[in-house]
Design a protein that fits this description.
With 153 residues, this protein is of the alpha+beta class. It has a single domain, classed as Aminopeptidase. The chain is 33% helix and 26% strand.
Length: 153
């Protein structure tokens, strides 16, 4: 899929596990929370083809400059299938050129093609640049707080 002349999506395969783990570790470290052992298992599951998530490397000129993960779920409130942009990461040197915008636009088209009614994402409270991008793309706070409980280590 080519959302713009500059950005292409490359499917992640089982052979890409080490490369995706390296990028996921960098992303999570930059966000201030190291990738946990459970997170590493999740990356491996995505690479292996877990049915609830898809992952791609984001490429510019054939070079991997980031990655994206789209997970699928279900929501009564939103009318059925919903999705979550679980991870969206661009290497620091790839930022500021519209690649994030192109990635989001493509992820929205992919999600819509899977029947997703609503697409969600999270942003760290100290990441004003990402929050501004998401806001420009039409994402809004819900007025609710996300709450989580880990059921497995």
């Amino acid at each position: 899929m080519t959302p713009s002349a500059a950005l292409t999506f490359q499917d992640v395969t089982p052979q890409d596990e080490a490369a995706l783990l390296a990028m996921a570790r960098a992303f999570h470290a930059e966000d201030g929370h190291a990738l946990s052992a459970a997170g590493e298992r999740a990356v491996r599951a995505v690479c292996a083809g877990d049915a609830m998530a898809r992952a791609w490397f984001l490429c510019e000129g054939g070079v991997r400059v980031g990655y994206a993960v789209l997970s699928l779920g279900f929501s009564i409130e939103h009318g059925g299938r919903d999705g979550f942009i679980d991870d969206l990461y661009l290497l620091p040197q790839a930022r500021g050129r519209g690649l994030g915008r192109a990635a989001i636009d493509s992820l929205e088209r992919i999600a819509a093609g899977h029947g997703v009614q609503a697409l969600h994402l999270e942003v760290e409270s100290n990441n004003a640049r990402a929050a501004a991008l998401y806001h420009r793309r039409g994402y809004r706070g819900t007025g609710r707080g996300l709450m989580s409980k880990r059921l497995a280590p």
